Structures are given as C-alpha cells and as structure tokens.
User: Which sequence fits this backbone?
C-alpha cells in the first residue's frame, strides 16, 4: 500500500461514525511505538547485578570503556623475522598462483 493510499484510507475512516475511536486507537499505537524507542536495556555491574537506573548504567558503561581502553591485555608475542637487506623483489602474480 502506498503512502497516499494509506492516508486516504485513514482519512476515510476518520470521517465515519467510528472515527473518534479510530483516532484514539491510532494515537495509542503511535505512543506505544514511541515508548519502545525510548526503552533501554540494563547491564550488569561488576558483581553481576542488573542495573536499570539510567545514571548507574551510564556510569557502568563509562567505567567499562575506561577499563578496556587503558588496560594491557595479554597477547601472543609478535614473531620476529630476519631483516631483508637490499632491494625487495616485486611479487609477481604467477608466484601467488598454485
């Protein structure tokens, strides 16, 4: 259904005897959709307790990102290779095939 056809249908329904009920139903539906957008999901704190307060959730996220951005994580050592002296040879497509 195109947007114009949808609005024609809504307009037709509003001009009927049940138009007042329809407009309240439409407003309620749009309000529910807006509430779904505003909802947020809580996160767990350090002890695993669910946080639902917006300020506590924001603080937890800030602390978490600060922790992962400043902490050193163990990683495997980077393998070292012998240095290449002189000019580096170009890689040919034939050398990569096969």
Assistant:
């Amino acid at each position: 259904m195109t947007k114009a056809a949808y609005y024609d249908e809504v307009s037709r329904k509003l001009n009927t005897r049940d138009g007042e009920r329809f407009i309240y139903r439409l407003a309620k539906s749009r309000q529910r959709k807006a509430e779904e957008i505003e909802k947020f999901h809580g996160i767990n704190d350090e002890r695993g307790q669910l946080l639902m307060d917006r300020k506590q959730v924001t603080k937890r996220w800030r602390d978490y990102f600060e922790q992962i951005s400043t902490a050193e994580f163990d990683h495997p050592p980077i393998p070292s290779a012998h240095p290449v002296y002189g000019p580096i040879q170009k890689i040919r497509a034939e050398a990569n095939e096969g």
In short: The chain has a mean pLDDT of 83. Residues 55 and 82 are 53 Å apart (CA to CA).
